[in-house]
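TL;DR need structure tokens for one chain.
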Amino acid sequence: MKYAVLFARTETGFSAHVPDLPGCVAAGCTLAETTELIRGAITLHVAGMREDGDAIPEPRTLAEYVVAA
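>> reply
TL;DR here they are.
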């Protein structure tokens, strides 16, 4: 599945979270590192949900940049 990931700059690098998977987060020094970490976090999060017998949520979040005048 393909989930939307939101990235934010922090004082020490970047953080990321997946709105459709509450609690699925990662943080790293660079955007590339954070991207790899969140990819692994999604894999582990979904595997844990399967192991617990929880339903895996369908991706629902859409992200878009909007320019405001």
